[in-house]
Amino acid sequence: MKTIQNYFPSLTNKQLSQFEALFDLYTEWNAKINVISRKDIQNLYVHHVLHSLAIAKFVSFSPQSRILDVGTGGGFPGIPLAIFFPELEFVMIDSIGKKIKVVNEVAQAISLTNVEAIHRRIQDEKRKYDFVVSRAVMSMIELEKLVRKNIAPTQKNALSNGLICLKGGDLTDELKPFKNIVESFPLTDYFSEPFFETKKLVYLPIN
What we know:
Blueprint: H1 2-7, H2 13-32, H3 44-58, E1 66-70, H4 78-84, E2 89-94, H5 97-109, E3 115-119, E4 131-135, H6 140-147, E5 162-168, H7 172-175, E6 183-186, E7 199-205
Parallel strand pairs: 1-2, 1-4, 2-3, 4-5
Antiparallel strand pairs: 5-7, 6-7
Helix pairs in contact: 3-4
């Protein structure tokens, strides 16, 4: 938690209490339904919460923006972002129902009212959003094809509507089809922990 506060010193008391509650909640739920590697649960705040909040370092969304978290798993990046941006609407989908159960239980436990978590494949989600976010779900090429239909035509933010992904490793081939429009940022621009040395944020505007 100290790491979160160091990077985000202006969090409200409510936000701090919500973030603080995540460790016990995920430890409890992870013992029943494996949504985070068991050996990684001790690293929840850096590897999962702070990693998700890299998106908040990249963009400050306008109020009432609608965000779709594709392949949310246990709620990342959606849950940390929903805590950070209480005035936004987050829809979080995953094709595995038991993972969505964890998301709903965690959201309810911390009184997170701006989250809707649904057991659904992205192919079956028809609604429009300002941004789609994801964390290492699939290749950008595949994901862009699937979510293009979900990007709203009207822009509310300074940043053009599109796809924001948290990725790792060598993305050269994956980003080649979008080379003139895609932007990629090393997360070491935002965070100093060694975990982020190979991590990147990728932004792809979709018109």
